Structures are given as structure tokens and as C-alpha cells.
Amino acid sequence: MSFREVDIKELSFNPFTRIGSEWMLVTAGDESGYNTMTASWGGLGYLWGKNVATIYVRPQRYTKQFVDKADTFTLSFYDVPKYREALNICGTLSGRDCDKAKKAGLTPFFVDGTTAFNEASLIFVCRKLYADELEERLFLDHETVDAHYPQRDFHTLYVAEITKVLVKQ
Questions:
Q1: What integer pLDDT is reported at residue 78 of this predicted model?
Q2: Across residues 118-135, what is the average pLDDT?
Q3: CATH of 3-168 among 3.40.50.1220, 2.30.110.10, 3.40.50.300, 3.10.105.10
Q4: Which residues touch 15 (CB under 8 Å, ≥6 apart)?
Q5: Does 125 score more than 90 pLDDT?
Q6: What whole-number distance in Å separates Cα of residue 147 and Cα of residue 139?
Q7: What does pTM read for this prediction?
């Protein structure tokens, strides 16, 4: 499958649906090694004069070491329900234990020093700008902590510039 690069301003979609309901894959690493994970938390916006994405990765996720090590990562979106099972696999299996991309039927390709998948319908190539650990003491709504962090395994927040947008042709 082939992709074409488009201007981000050409996109028309609901990020609340695409991220929160349909999910996305966060993928980092290159030909020497990569990992991917399903995410349903994140955001898109404009910050520091740049189009940005925010992602959140828990410390125990194998993908985190790849995101931490690399300067870039991809966010990829899929046609649901066709790829729902692939997204389920990438969200429940660990890349420490198996080649979950292969199990999910996803074909990697390498772009701008990072990894994406041919089966995606939309890909953002992102360059990290900022990372920080969420801290319990900074939460203003303590019910959020209790509901989403019973083990106190707080996410790392990453802000990344969207440097390239690819859409399936």
C-alpha cells in the first residue's frame, strides 16, 4: 500500500472519536527494533507555534523504552471495525513476549527514522518536544487518581510536533 503526504490543515476528522473510541497505535523504534501499543488517551492541538500530539504511556509498557530512546514516533489510525482485533492484540499482548505486530497482521514500514504500518489509513510522524511524569500531588481531582491510578503507576506525558501526515492512497 502507498501513502501520500498531506498538509495537516487538509484533515477533517473528530479526534475524540479517532483516539477515544477507535483508538490509535503509538509506535517507536526503527529497523533494528521497534514496539507498538494501542492507545485511547491522547490529544491533538497547537502549542509552541507547532501542530502537536500528546500521548501518555505507563511506566510498565514495553513501548515506553522505545519512545524514551527515540526522537520520533508515529501515531497511526485504522479503519474500524476492520482493524479492531489488530488494535486489541496490540493493546493486550506485550512485545516483550511476542511479535505482536505480526500476530495482529500488521506490516511495518520505516519512515523518517521510525516505524509505521501499511494497514493504517492515517499516520502522524511525530518528533518529541517535551516529556514529564504525571505526579499525584499535582492532580486537582483526586477521584481521577483513585479511578485511573489505583497502583499509582502514573503515565509519562509526551508532547510531540507532528512533522508529517500520511494518508492512504
A1: 98
A2: 98
A3: 2.30.110.10
A4: 43, 44
A5: yes
A6: 12
A7: 0.96
